[in-house]
Design goal:
Elements (H helix, E strand, L loop, with lengths): L8 H10 L22 H4 L9 E6 L14 H10 L2 E7 L21 E4 L5 E5 L2 E7 L3 E5 L9
Antiparallel strand pairs: 1-2, 1-5, 2-3, 3-6, 4-5
Length: 153
């Protein structure tokens, strides 16, 4: 006679948290980019609204499988995300790019753009399922159409 194995209290908590709601992991597709159609409203509700001239970015995560078909470990993907200098603009503060003397030609980026920023720029904010970066508006260096066009180490 087999007895049924009951999950521990910690396993029950993990299962409950797993099905409790959206996380930043849900924003990414298999290739590490943002899913088609952008970030859902559920996930956007997790992102704090930047104040002043700050911009909230979702760092590029990178593909789970290399072009040669090798599956990357979770730690490798997380290391790539920490070291990346490419991100997807999620939200902008009310004063971002509002200073006409500093930005005479208008905003350098908009919500929904992939941007390049300095390696140590901004603050890393951990959120369920990942992290976002909060940068000042003048820390954006360039926009790119595809984050894969930038070499990631």
């Amino acid at each position: 006679m087999q007895s049924e194995v009951k999950p521990t209290a910690l396993e029950e908590k993990w299962e409950k948290n797993k099905s409790s709601g959206p996380s930043l992991d849900d924003a990414y597709s298999e290739d590490g980019k943002i899913k088609e159609g952008g970030v859902s409203e559920e996930i956007m509700s997790l992102i704090p609204q930047p104040t002043g001239w700050r911009i909230a970015l979702l760092p590029y995560r990178g593909a789970a499988v290399t072009k040669g078909g090798i599956m990357l470990a979770k730690e490798t993907k997380e290391r790539t995300q920490l070291a990346t200098n490419v991100g997807y603009v999620l939200k902008m503060g009310p004063l971002a790019y509002a200073d006409e003397s500093k930005f005479p030609y208008g905003a350098w980026c908009q919500v929904g753009n992939w941007v390049i920023f300095g390696r140590y720029a901004g603050s890393r904010i951990p959120i369920d399922g990942g992290e976002i970066r909060l940068l000042n508006d003048d820390e954006i260096l360039a926009t790119v159409s595809d984050p894969e066009n930038v070499l990631h180490m």
